[in-house]
Task: inverse folding
């Protein structure tokens, strides 16, 4: 059975945590056949700074480790309410297979 995982990845600490998660997953579960979606907040009027992962090496490493970077649109919440935005994204996980949504709280 295919199993999907959704994590958040954005500039700063979360991009490195995404890499650590992916590397750990690949090391400990090399036969994992699901997809790992790395939800990346998109810059718009709700953000004072661009939250995207802009370093091409970081993006390449995420992809090399099997992460699929997918946009996380912030239409309803502000950057200071990230949980609401992230929960909204969790609801958009593919429903065809089981999924987990991992979120780190501060």
Result:
């Amino acid at each position: 059975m295919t199993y999907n995982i959704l994590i958040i990845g954005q500039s700063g600490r979360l991009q490195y945590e995404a890499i650590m998660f992916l590397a750990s997953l690949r090391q400990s579960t090399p036969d994992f056949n699901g997809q790992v979606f790395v939800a990346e907040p998109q810059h718009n009027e709700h953000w004072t700074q661009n939250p995207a992962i802009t370093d091409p090496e970081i993006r390449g490493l995420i992809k090399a480790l099997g992460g699929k970077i997918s946009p996380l649109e912030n239409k309803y919440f502000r950057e200071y309410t990230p949980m609401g935005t992230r929960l909204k994204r969790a609801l958009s996980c593919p429903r065809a297979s089981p999924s987990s949504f991992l979120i780190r709280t501060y």
Notes: Residues 4-101 form a domain with the Rossmann fold fold (CATH 3.40.50). The radius of gyration is 14 Å. The longest helix spans residues 13-28.
